[in-house]
Amino acid sequence: MLANYHTHTVRCHHAGGTEREYIEAAIAKGFKVLGFSDHTPQPYPPQYISGIRMLPEELPGYVETLCALREEYREEIRILIGLEVEYMPRYFDDLLRLIRAYPVDYIIQGQHFVPDEITGFYAGDMTDSEERLQSYVDLTIEGMKTGYFSYLAHPDLLYFTGPDAVYQNHMRRLISASIDLSVPLEVNMYGFIGGRWYPHERFFSLASEMGASFVIGCDAHNPKIIAKPEEVPHFSDFLTKCDIRTGDNIVKIRPLA
Ligand SMILES: [Zn+2]
Ligand SMILES: [Zn+2]
User: In whole angstroms, what is the distance from residue 63 CA to residue 164 CA?
Assistant: First the structure.
């Protein structure tokens, strides 16, 4: 594994460490590419302040900090500037306008809310509602179809506790779309290390059986999470169990233009 595209910074209010610490951790682990993809600012009405992302006015500082470090470390590692973005139909066009004003290399899709953070639900809340599952899958597919996302982060974030057959019905649609649209699915290391409900075998076995392509994402909210699969206890076993083979983990970046 030579690349990780999923790295946060303190601006999201739930990550620790400096950008430099993430970069030095990545160099120490032998990575050739480190992509930062902190939780994107969203162009919400000014009276709504999200507690899990930077504000739009913090975006210039994020980009400037990373541009300077990219220059400083250019001989040692390739730094990319990205964002982890929820596809929210109501805000997406404004969001693209906002981030295109900066040298942002890529975005990944992390569908934390359906249909948006202000009026919708958090995808990670336990649910047995098929309607929620269906709307998560529908919205995620709609987002992938925009063609802007370089990959789909934690595709199985939706925490469905209903029947497996219902789960598979809908997740098959999501996986098919990812194959048709060539959007790789992320196996999320942070969730695995934290013992979260994702990444889950029921999703990833199905996805590999269907022929999806995969990327490992550290989803580092802390420099210690910058690691290779073999360094994370039981993670390689999980990949083997799901029949996921990993290579250099280099992803084709989709331009935002
Ligand atoms: Zn986060
Ligand atoms: Zn993330």
Answer: 42
